[in-house]
Amino acid sequence: MPPADLLDYLHGRHGDNQRRIHANDRVFNSQFRYASNYIKTSKYSVLTFLPLNLFEQFQRLANFYFLCLLVLQLIPAISSLTPVTTALPLIGVLGLTAIKDAYDDIQRHISDSQVNNRKSRVVRKGKLSNEKWSAVQVGDIIRMDNNSFIAADVLLLTSSEPNGLCYIETSELDGETNLKCRQCLVETAEIGQDDALLGEFDGEILCETPQQSVEQVRWGADMERQILFIVFFLLSMCLFCMVACGIWESLVGQYFQTFLPWDTLVPSEPLGGATIIALLVFFSYAIVLNTVVPISLYVSVEVIRFVQSFLINWDDQMYYEKTGTNAKARTTTLNEELGQIEYIFSDKTGTLTQNIMTFNKCSITGRSFGDLIDQRTGDIIEITEDTEPIDFSFNLNFEPEFKFYDHHLLEAVKRRDNDAFSFFRLLALCHTVMSENREGRLEYQAQSPDEAALVSAARNFGFVFIERAPNSITIEVMGVKEVYELLCILDFNNVRKRMSVILRKDGKLRLYCKGADNVIYERLKSGMDDIKNKTQEHLNKFAGEGLRTLCLASRDLDEEFFNNWKQRHQEAALALDGRDERLDAIYEEIETDMELIGVTAIEDKLQDGVPQTIANLILAGIKIWVLTGDKQETAINIGYSCQLLTDEMVDVFIVDASSYDEVHQQLLKFRDNIKIVHTFQPRSPAGVQLGTSNGRVDASNHSTGTTELEYNRGVEEAPIEESTAGFAIVINGHSLVHCLHPQMERLFLEVVMQCKSIICCRVTPLQKALVVELIKKSRQAVTLAVGDGANDVSMIKGTYFDAVSLGGHGLSDYMLFCSATAAMLVIVNTAQIALDTSYWTVFNHIMIWGSLAFYFIADNFYNYVIGGVYVGSLTKAMSEADFWFTSVLVVIISIMPVLAWRFYFVDVFPTLSDRVRLKQRMAQVRSRQSQDVLRTPSARRARRSIRSGYAFAHQEGFGRLITSGKIMRKLPNPEFNIPNIINKLNMTSGSSNAGHKNHTSTAPHSQDGSSSGTRAPMQDLDTINL
Fold first, then answer.
1. Which residues bind Mg(2+) (predicted)?
2. Could you write out the three-class secondary structure of 177-238?
3. What distance, in Å, lies between the first and last C-alpha atoms of the chain?
4. What's the Cα-to-Cα distance from 803 to each of 175, 775, 800, rounded to whole Å?
5. What is the DSSP letter of 263?
6. Radius of gyration for the chain, computed over Cα atoms and rounded to the nearest angstrom
């Protein structure tokens, strides 16, 4: 292609919204620089890891703050602290986070390598060659075998299966494990398995450009906001000190330069010098006051985050034994962010339930099957594991795992009842299930477990689906093969909520249809009121038992009418504009005037531990919304089964009106009922159920009975906020349309915010997304969505978190853990401060122990007065003996390393003050050891003579020696007594005063051993070393 023509092609035919691809033409396709098939989910390489990881980490406010602080501490002019105190914790945080990021990225590299190195068979010059998936390019023709992995978007050209069919699983895209059927074009199906024809294929593909929009997820950042607040507080203090310093230096400080000279870099001019000093002081105070921002706490939190992420992975209670799957925390902040969740939006099928469907009961032309009836009493017998199921071994294609207990249904089939035959024929024909023979055994692949359960039920009762072709369906009815010509499939979607097939056999045309009961009932022909009413009773009964129901109907068609309809259907199917709308209108024409055949009831069991988990979540104050497509009765029954709805609730509201005005009136009635309950508090124990209301019952119905009400006069009508009262609300899909109207949003929110549980039934995927968006926008809350299929994608995209296993106690325990940990941290810090305090005063006691008391007072004030999110958590924790035992243990374990560290440094690397204190203490110890002598009886007897001597002495006496307590010590030497001490003192005094005549006399001993002296020696007794 010439360059000019290529340019015209690029700008003209190859627009921004579409692209053309030539098969088997790499040269042509390479001109457009399409993305390669190389998968890269990793973030780093060996060379880019360090700079990119540090760049990402310093985008966090706390890390950037400590980096700035470290830079300031490296400037001698403003720093008075060593930078080591900041560098070591910062390096520790960065290193720990880098190790975690490196580990995660290594796992991504391993996953990418596994995908990129998968082998594929690509057509090259008319031959198949093996290549890696990463080498496959846009426009290549590839060959895939059964159960092979598909790592790119592909267009099906041909298949080895009859009629160009194949089946794919999209579990990695939308979570659906059921197979989807795809069929190639008739023109390309003729290529078959001929490699030469595949190599010569030169078709052109016109398709849309890939969608590159990325949904951004917002994560909780409470700690970042708190650190930001602390930093602003620190800067405000530094600013105040800077202004104060500037004012003092300009008014007073300039006159003290003789004693406090300014630095050389400060100008000598008073105003300029004061300004420079103030600026330097600003940064100096930022360094000195850096402890306001708790880097130690920040480091501790990072370590806790990292360790707790592994605790989630190692939690045995979150291990699913059937699949051998552990919980996987993909972010270190998962634990704390889960603790911030206020709203959970959950699908029902496959999320609260197991999505394993079993055919349980049915109703055929007004007769119910499935219950075991006691022939004597007429009561329903409960089915247990010991109950004997029906033996289907007469059927060669039966499934041993299929169980049904009502023999009456099998008897009706065996006697060839027309209604039973019509019922099971519809189940065997009206579906999109694919059959496959594996090792001589017939197996089914269905798009939904509902379809698989229904086709399986028909199979076990003798109506076996054998195979399908593009234009035919083959079944076996009680051993007899029947082939039906398939004329048209009217497929199921979330708007139609039904599917139909049109078949021809023996020249007769018939439409078989199955779908939601409300949709089918609207399209039944007039008459048959008796069957309709009985079937409706059975529907309500099945739904009340939590079973999933489907209605079955059929219609005989006229050949002429069908041919006319088929032509218009083909025109609508080929329309380029409004194709879906035109097809729906065409479907409506033929899916009318149908005859009701019966109802199926399928059981979908709850997941293990769902009731306990939901009870714990509600106890933690989390609002739970269940958004499901099931009918109202089924949703309500599931709500009671999983503890979303309980008998202790004050009221369960039901919004089921069809028009805007009726929905508005129901919501107003519910709001008034809520105000009544809030105004009148029942004296009876909390949790009395006052009834279930649908908005059409008078309010007096809720205030009658034995419950005595008492008026609270202090309560005024005010804008209603969230309530903890026991309310729940069930909303139908057609009512939800009006509730989401902009003019009714406010009233709708006022009602639902008072409810613990909200169930939305009969909702579409779009309505799920709108509900999530409404709560996010109005409440500014952290939300979690749990889903398992493609119909939950829009709901999941609108929340902060996209999935979590509902199998643990989790969030209430997390709040208790946070409160207890914070309290223990305060206690440990207070204990360490007390150990560091060497001189105690009254002020010290007030500040240290008062701060500990202030914490508990502030916690109660924040939670009970202001209404914090952790209300009651610390109180509940402190009521347990484990809290106090753990607190003592934590204090001991936390302080022991600190004490050991300090003792080690005092002993090995003592400071000057340590040496001075040590010398003083050693001197005191030696003094006490030398004075620790025994006091003999003669010493006690000599005490009287000492006092007499002191009374008649003309020189300094022994009063100071007595009052000092030194002579009260025990003297180890019995000869060491007071008379001997006086003699020695006199002798010392005489020898020291040579040439001076000093008269001394010693009184003779009296009988009591006392002695007296005429004069005391002239000497300072404090200098005597005893």
1. 347, 349, 788, 792
2. EEEEEEECCHHHHCCCCCHHHHHHCCCEEEEECCCCCCCCCCCCCHHHHHHHHHHHHHHHHH
3. 118
4. 12, 18, 10
5. P
6. 44
Report the C-alpha gap between 489 and 511 in whole angstroms. Answer: 10
Alpha carbon distance 168, 21 (integer Å)? 23
- Sign of torsion over alpha carbons 144, 147, 149, 155: positive
Answer yes or no: pTM beyond 0.85. Answer: no
Give the β-pairing of 341-346 and 353-364: unpaired
Rounded CA gap, 455 and 446, in Å?
9
Residue 803: predicted pLDDT: 45
Q: Which residues pair with 372 in a beta bridge?
A: 381
Q: Return the higher-pLDDT residue of 399 and 932.
A: 399
Count of residues for the chain?
Answer: 1026
Crossing angle for the helix pair 270-288 and 222-251, to the nearest 10 degrees: 150
3-state secondary structure 456-483: HHHHHCCEEEEEEECCEEEEEECCEEEE
Mean pLDDT across the chain? 75
pLDDT in tens, 62-116: 788 888 888 888 888 777 777 887 788 888 888 888 888 898 889 889 988 888 8
CB-count burial class (<10 Å; 0-12, 13-18, 19+) for 738: buried
Closest to 399 measured CA to CA, from 350, 442, 366: 442
Q: Which residue intervals of 46-185 are DSSP H helices? A: 49-57, 61-73, 84-116, 171-174
What's the confidence (pLDDT) of residue 1025? Answer: 42
Which residues line the annotated binding site for Mg(2+)? 347, 349, 788, 792
* Contact partners, residue 607, CB within 8 Å, separation at least 6: 351, 352, 353, 354, 806, 807
> Nearest CA to 722 among 635, 656, 798, 780?
780
What residues are annotated to the active site?
Answer: 347
Q: Which among 699, 752, 749, 703 has a CA at the least distance from the CA of 725?
A: 752
Q: What is the C-alpha separation between 589 and 593, in angstroms, rounded?
A: 10
The predicted-structure confidence for 864-921, as pLDDT tens digits, reads as follows: 666 665 556 677 777 777 778 888 888 888 888 878 877 787 778 777 777 777 788 8
Q: Which of 344-353, 523-532, 738-747 has the lowest mean pLDDT?
A: 344-353
Q: Provide the 10 A C-beta neighbour count for residue 178.
A: 18
pLDDT tens readout for residues 226-242: 777 878 888 888 899 88
φ, ψ of residue 500 in degrees (nearest 5) = -140, 155
If residue 599 lies in a helix (H) or strand (E), which one and from where to where?
Answer: strand 595-606
Helix (H) or strand (E) holding 525: none
Return contacts of 98-105, CB within 8 angstroms, 24+ apart.
Answer: 98/49, 98/53, 98/54, 98/57, 100/306, 100/332, 101/43, 101/44, 101/53, 101/56, 102/44, 102/49, 102/53, 104/330, 105/42, 105/43, 105/44, 105/49
Q: 382 vs 202, 372, 405, CA distance in Å?
A: 66, 7, 11
Q: Residue 811 half-sphere exposure, CB side, CA atoms within 13 Å?
A: 28
The whole-number pLDDT of residue 561 equals: 92
Q: Residue 922: enclosing H or E segment and its boundaries?
A: helix 912-931
Of 747-756, 760-769, 975-984, the least confident? 975-984
3-state secondary structure of 270: helix
Between 827 and 351, residue with greater pLDDT: 827
Walk across the sheet containing 757-761 and list its strands. Answer: 692-693, 651-655, 727-732, 757-761, 623-627, 341-346, 782-786
* Distances from the Cα of 157 to the Cα of 80, 188, 407, 524, angstroms: 76, 5, 49, 42
Q: Residues comprising the binding site? A: 347-349, 451, 492, 514, 548, 628-630, 762, 768, 788, 791-792
What are the b/e assignments for 238-269, b being 16+ CB within 10 Å?
A: beebbeebbeebbeebbeeeeeeebeeebeee
Residue 556's pLDDT is 93
CA–CA separation, 374 vs 881, rounded Å?
54
Reported as a single tens digit per residue, the pLDDT across 30-42 is 888 887 888 888 8
Binding residues for ATP: 347-349, 451, 492, 514, 548, 628-630, 762, 768, 791-792
